[in-house]
Every structure is written in C-alpha cells, then in structure tokens.
C-alpha cells in the first residue's frame, strides 16, 4: 500500500490526514489540541521565534509533526508524498528559512539587518532534508505564496471556494486566530489578515477547545431553554441537552448527554447571539443570578469569555469593513460571503451575521471546511500540481491592506471595543463611525440564504476511523533561574498553569510547557518576578 499525508499547519493547531494513493481514500486523521510554539496567535509565534531563535521554533514544529504522523497508525516507511499548507510564517518555520522579512516592515530596516527574502514560489524537498525523519522515503510539496503577506493558506481559500470564478463582488474569510480575508471586485482581489486572536477557535475561553470530539459547537433556542450541539467522533454536530441558560437546569436530555468536554469558539458565538436575543447578554454584562451563561455538562461562559470573543468578532468586522473602504465599496455592494475554516463551518451563519462576524449586506452565505487541508489533499493526490499553483499565484492580482497601519482599521476597531468591552449600546455604533467619516452599517442585519458545502471541517471521516487527538503537542522549555528565591510567584501567576519549578543541584530550574504558554503577549512569569531574575528568552528545549 502507498500512502500520502496532507498536513495543515494552522496558527491554533495542526491537522493531518493519511491517504491511500491508489484508492484516494482517507485512512486516518490526527490533529493537535494546540500549537506547540508559545503564544495564542501568529504575532506571539513571530515574537517567540525572533527572540528565542527561528531554529527553536522549527524544532518545536518538526517534533510535533513527526509525533503527529506517528499517531496516524500507518506504515510511515510507505509514505511517498507529504503536502503541507499554512500561512507564510508557519511554512517558513517549517522549512527553517528566513522569517525576519515577515516580521519587520520597511525595506530600509531589512536592508540594514542584511535580510534577504527567501524564495517562496513553492518547492519539492526530501522529507529527511527537512527533518521529517518519521517519513524517510517521502517527498514534501510546499505550495507557493503570492507575496510574503499572501501565503498558501490564502491561495487555498481563494482556489477551493472558487470565489474568483464568479462574476460578483464577494468576500471570503478564513475564520481563525489569524483571519485571512479577501474581497473580490471586478476580478481584482483586496486581501488582509486580522489578528482576531484565538477565542474563535476556543482558546482563551475558560472551557474552550478546538473543534474535536466532545466540543460543544452550537446552541439553539427551544422554548424556555437552549438545545446544545456537540461534535461526535466524526466531528459532525449532534443534539445534546436542552438547558436553561440562566441556571443550567436540564430541561431535556439529548443524544450527546454527558459527552461535552468543552466549547468551541462557534459555540460561544451561538451563545452570544442567543443571549443577546434573549436578553441574557446586555451592555452591563450577563444577566443571570451568578453572571454566567450555563450550558450542558457544567460548561459555563463568563463575562471575560464574552469580552475575549467580542474582541475577536470586532477584529473580523473591522477587517472586512476596512477592505471595503480600500476597494471603494460598502456593505450593500457585497451580497455574497464565503466562510472557511472550522469556525467558518461549524458556526451558525446567520447567528454569526447577527453579531457582526459576516458582512451585514450578505444575502447569500456559503460555508466551507478546512480549505488548507483540501488543497494539501489535492496536491498529495495529484489533482492539483505545484506548477498549476504557481501559475495561479502569478496571475493573481492582489492588493494587500496592512491593517496594522490603517487609520480606518484603528478607528473602526475603537468602536468595536466600545461596544463589546465598555458598555456602549449598539444604537450608538453608527454615530461613532460618523465621527471618523465612515458610512453607517445596518444594525439589525436580515437573514441570509445559507449553503453549507460540507458537514465536517475535515473531509472523508467516518465512524470507524474517527479522529486521533494529540492533547499535549508541546515540549518543555527549561532553564536555570540564577538568583531565584523559589517564592513561586511566577508559577502562581501563570494564567495557563504552564510553568513548574524544581530544585536541581544548587539552583532553581523553570519548566514551561510550550503548547500551554501564552508567550510574549503574557510574560507574567517574567514581569511579576519580585527579584527580576526570570528570563523567558533564556529558556531552551529540554526534556
């Protein structure tokens, strides 16, 4: 038997599928629960790799990929082809090539640093050459990027959705931690990438988790209660319990009773939409006896969770409104919206639209699954060639909008923060936009026609095969802390419980689980050290 492996290196985690090259069937699927590099978004990953060394980031990624392949349960010596997809930064770290051209803006700064951008036009490399020792006989296909901002994941999003083949003004968004989006108008493409954060993929939510077995992915109002929907072993949503969101009392037990382990970002979005409609969520917080939204199996949503999700939703709406201003169109001109990624598939599209995740002018919403892994599968099976992707990339006329330097993005996002985090009523939203000279948006969007192209985020999974999950994809980062008094404050202040301390020899050694660590956006271990001796950057891969 001959095998191929399709691999998606996402910002929140990795997903891979083993394929039978003769029958084209999926043999096994394995995913990670998190990303092995410390941090909750691509900016955190960039900062870690720059400060700790790109080689450290490369080793973390390769160790996880090698272990993940081992969980597929196939003879890895018979793997002939691996195709990998992801954003430019993740693929650069995977290949262990220059990343500073992605991290720093300005040609003069890059010139002063002596940075030369590497070739990102796609390649076929030997697995052993890359450090994929688990598949010693495989060749690895790496798809091209259009520019250093528009990578293989964006190409996958545009190609798989087919948005460029339609004669319409449309927007396509890959919903995730680093939300890629593209607005297509008269054959011209305007792209952007909003650092939405990990909340929409279930991270930085107290009971949050990625889309996997046991994840509560949706809720629907039903009389006095809400029906919870939980992902089964094939990642298909099935009905769970009907609960009173104010108390958690079970009104009726469903097929997935007792099987919810946590909640995805899409479940949080659904709870927000239903909560706003039912008056459970308002400008003053969560209106329940204990200030929590109650779902099945003891899963709760706090005010902090609402704030985290709101900041992510606000970044998304700010992103596509900014692209529209860049393209010279507005919400009434964009009638079709494409949603890709796990969050874009499992979320109820009209609930997402009602709270701002989808452009309010959309009359038609088309939902896709993981377009990155679909492109990787096509490459593995020979349904798409590297040369065809290069031709596609060369013909793609795209204008990239840097949201980080956009005044429109800054002005709109300040309005979003006022609404989601500081108690501003939605009725004031357009008044705030008007201050910056930005046109109004519909505050109560109408329902759109929804077409869901697939049932599951990952293709071709059945009851027998299911999904294998690597719960702890990271490694230990260790280092001796000279001058440490062993007070334990750094350990106690770690919000992710990623840090441990031990007495070894004559000193104190810190051990940090890389996949749990919030990275450079946190650094409480370092900042709260009373002796100022803890140095996160001094930690190295240990055992």
Defining traits:
seven-stranded mixed beta sheet, Nucleotidyltransferase, domain 5, alpha/beta, 4 domains, 17 helices, 543 residues, 27 strands, 30% helix
Assign the CATH class of the largest domain: Alpha Beta
The SS-based structural class is alpha/beta
Determine the oligomeric state from the structure: single chain
Q: Which stretches are low in confidence, meaning pLDDT under 50 for 5 or more residues running? A: none
Radius of gyration: 23 Å
The residue fraction in helices comes out at 25-40%
Overall morphology: globular
CATH architecture annotation name of the largest domain? 2-Layer Sandwich
Strand order of the largest sheet: 5-6-4-1-2-3-23
CATH homologous superfamily heading of the largest domain: Domain of unknown function (DUF4445)
End-to-end C-alpha gap: 36 Å
User: How much of the sequence is in beta strands?
Assistant: 15-25%
Q: Tell me the domain tally.
A: 4
Mean pLDDT: 89
Q: Give the number of helices.
A: 17
Total strand count, please?
Answer: 27
Q: Kindly report the CATH topology of the largest domain.
A: Nucleotidyltransferase, domain 5
For the sheet with most strands, the description reads:
7 strands, mixed
Task: Describe this structure as you would to a colleague.
Strand 12 and strand 13 (250-252) form a beta hairpin. Strands 5-6-4-1-2-3-23 form a seven-stranded mixed sheet, with helices on both faces. The protein is an alpha/beta fold. 30% of the residues lie in helices and 24% in strands. It is globular and about 55 Å long. It contains 17 helices and 27 strands. The chain folds into four domains: 3-151 and 373-385 and 459-470, Domain of unknown function (DUF4445) (Nucleotidyltransferase, domain 5); 155-197 and 307-370 and 397-452, ATPase, nucleotide binding domain (Nucleotidyltransferase, domain 5, 2-Layer Sandwich); 207-301, no CATH class; 476-541, Alpha-Beta Plaits, CATH 3.30.70.
């Amino acid at each position: 038997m001959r095998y191929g492996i399709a691999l998606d290196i996402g910002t929140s985690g990795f997903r891979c599928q083993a394929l039978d090259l003769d029958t084209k069937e999926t043999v096994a699927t394995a995913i990670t629960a998190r990303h092995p590099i410390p941090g909750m978004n691509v900016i955190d990953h960039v900062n870690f790799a720059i400060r700790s060394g790109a080689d450290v980031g490369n080793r973390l990624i390769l160790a996880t990929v090698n272990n993940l392949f081992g969980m597929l349960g196939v003879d890895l010596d018979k793997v002939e082809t691996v195709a990998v997809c992801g954003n430019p930064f993740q693929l650069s770290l995977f290949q262990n090539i220059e990343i500073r051209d992605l991290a720093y803006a300005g040609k003069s700064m890059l010139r002063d640093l002596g940075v030369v951008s590497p070739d990102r036009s796609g390649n076929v490399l030997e697995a052993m050459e890359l450090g994929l020792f688990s598949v010693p006989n495989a060749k690895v296909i790496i798809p091209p990027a259009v520019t250093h901002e528009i990578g293989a994941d964006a190409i996958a999003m545009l190609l798989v959705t087919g948005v460029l083949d339609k004669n319409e003004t449309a927007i396509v968004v890959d919903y995730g931690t680093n939300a890629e989006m593209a607005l297509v108008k008269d054959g011209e493409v305007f792209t952007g990438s909003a650092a939405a954060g990990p909340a929409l993929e279930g991270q930085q939510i107290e009971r949050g988790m990625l889309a996997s077995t046991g994840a509560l992915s949706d809720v629907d109002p039903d009389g006095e209660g809400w029906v919870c929907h939980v992902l089964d072993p094939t990642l298909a949503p099935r009905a769970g319990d009907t609960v009173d969101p104010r108390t958690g009392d079970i009104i009726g037990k469903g097929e997935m009773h007792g099987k919810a382990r946590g909640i995805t970002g899409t479940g949080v979005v659904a709870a927000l939409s239903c909560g706003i409609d039912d008056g459970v969520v308002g400008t003053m917080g969560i209106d329940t006896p204990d200030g929590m939204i109650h779902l099945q199996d003891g899963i709760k949503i706090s005010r902090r969770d609402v704030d985290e999700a709101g900041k992510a939703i606000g970044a998304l709406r700010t992103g596509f409104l900014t692209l529209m201003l860049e393209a010279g169109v507005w919400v009434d001109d964009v009638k079709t919206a494409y949603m890709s990624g796990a969050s874009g598939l499992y979320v109820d599209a009209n609930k997402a639209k009602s709270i701002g995740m989808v452009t309010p002018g959309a009359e038609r919403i088309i939902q896709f699954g993981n377009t990155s892994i679909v492109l990787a599968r096509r490459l593995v099976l020979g349904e798409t060639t590297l040369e065809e992707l290069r031709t596609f990339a060369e013909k793609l006329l795209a204008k990239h909008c840097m949201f980080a330097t956009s005044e429109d993005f800054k002005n709109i996002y300040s309005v979003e923060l006022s609404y989601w985090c500081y108690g501003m009523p939605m009725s004031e939203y357009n008044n705030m936009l008007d201050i910056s000279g930005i046109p109004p948006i519909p505050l109560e969007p109408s329902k759109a026609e929804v077409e869901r192209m697939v049932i599951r985020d990952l293709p071709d999974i059945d009851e027998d095969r299911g999904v294998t999950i690597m719960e702890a994809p990271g490694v230990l980062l260790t280092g001796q802390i000279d001058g440490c008094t062993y007070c334990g404050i750094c350990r106690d202040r770690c919000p992710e419980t990623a840090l441990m301390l031990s007495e070894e020899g004559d000193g104190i050694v810190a051990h940090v689980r890389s996949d749990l660590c919030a990275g450079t956006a946190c650094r409480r271990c370092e900042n709260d050290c009373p002796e100022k001796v803890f140095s996160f950057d001094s930690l190295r891969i240990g055992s």
